[in-house]
Amino acid sequence: MENLKTIEGKARAVMQENEDARNDDMVLYLALCNLYLKDAGAMPLAQILLNHKELGLPSFESVGRTRRK
């Protein structure tokens, strides 16, 4: 549960700064991945989605739910 609150806080901060992230899960997810892992945007999407736990990244579903709250 603590991890979800951390995701929520970071997601809210990103959405305050980035208007596109407020309306698009993918934009928000990319911005959060770049916060958690430097240059995540340069990695192949498949690598991020298949290895998000090992990379210390939040799941896409968690980010989407957070944006819709």
TrEMBL record:
UniProt name for this protein: Uncharacterized protein
